[in-house]
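Researcher: Batch entry, complex prediction.
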Amino acid sequence: MNRNQIDDEMTLFSQLHPGDYGQIPPPPRGLKPRRRRRRGRGGVGEADGVPGGLVGMKKRKLSDQQVMMLEQNFGSEHKLESERKDRLASELGLDPRQVAVWFQNRRARWKNKKLEEEYSKLKSLHDSAIIEKCHLQAEVLKLKEQLGEADKQIHKLSSALEEGHRKCREGHDGVNGSNSPSMTSISTEPLSLPPGFRGDLAYELDDMMLYMPENSCSVQCMEWLSHYM
DNA sequence: TTGTGTTTTATTGCCTCC
DNA sequence: GGAGGCAATAAAACACAA
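Model: Structure tokens for the complex:
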């Protein structure tokens, strides 16, 4: 992965996690803006004669053998103490500084790789959470629909119950007259449902029965109800 | 062959630690 | 204050499509 790709992923990451990663952290204390370096043409060289420099050497790619050896060493220990550096350098026929530089760059690559892996892990966790959220939202919608249907049903049933009760009263009045002893206890109040009537159908139907007046013709009412069931 | 993008090697400037 | 680490960057080396 190149730098642009990493930058793109980091941008995406900060968009996904604006709270945590969306802001560029302030520069470390006392850090001045870096001056842009200028470097003379002509490849590797340290004109000021820094010890261990590669004066006059053309930048060269390390051989597969050298890289393999360096990788092995990096695998066992990411840091390079100077004794090991010198030993490795002489084993590989390289300048100790080259070995140090190689380790430095290798650590940088390793760090980038780690970041990529961490990013991938977090991204897949995030994606799973999004999918889970979608499922839960669909479930909520479904349950809301079911609740609406149940409410409609309850409303229908309560209307039917009232209607049945009314017919029942009318029937009794027609046959026995208003002074029939059997009807003295029937309430003339309209059937009222308990406040907050809403919820489990079975329990609420039981409640409705409790609120029905004494001596009501439950059987007839139930017949009425059955038309609506 | 050449233009362009990527990877590797190396440098620079700053920081921390002893 | 010097050694060593790191981030940023330059530039050579390399890969590859057109």
